[in-house]
Amino acid sequence: MELKTARLTLLIDPAKKQAFEQLCAAQDLTPSQVVRQLIRDYLTAHDVSYVPSGTQGAADPKAAPSTSTSTSTSTPAPSRKRRPAR
Predict the structure, then answer these.
(1) Averaged in consecutive runs of 10 residues, what is the pLDDT profile of the chain (86 residues)?
(2) Rounded to the nearest 5 degrees, what angle is found at the Cα of 77, between the Cα atoms of 12 and 9?
(3) What are phi and psi of 75, to 5 degrees?
(4) Is the pTM of this model over 0.70?
(5) Domain boundaries of the chain, sorted by first residue
């Protein structure tokens, strides 16, 4: 699991954002959890290797493992406390 985080800002149609947030809530996931999973899946689908920040081996780029990470694509990230919808 990643120990460090970075912010990704994107623009999206407000109606699409609302529908996405409602779907995530119905699945007991945060939008951030879903986007992180989509990014992991996209990197894997395109054979992109990376070492999650803050994990063992991150200091040595030569020690980068293959595209598979320890995070399973079938298990969502742990639930986080959500802010109330606006």
Answers:
(1) 86 98 98 96 96 70 46 50 58
(2) 25
(3) -110, 120
(4) no
(5) 14-49
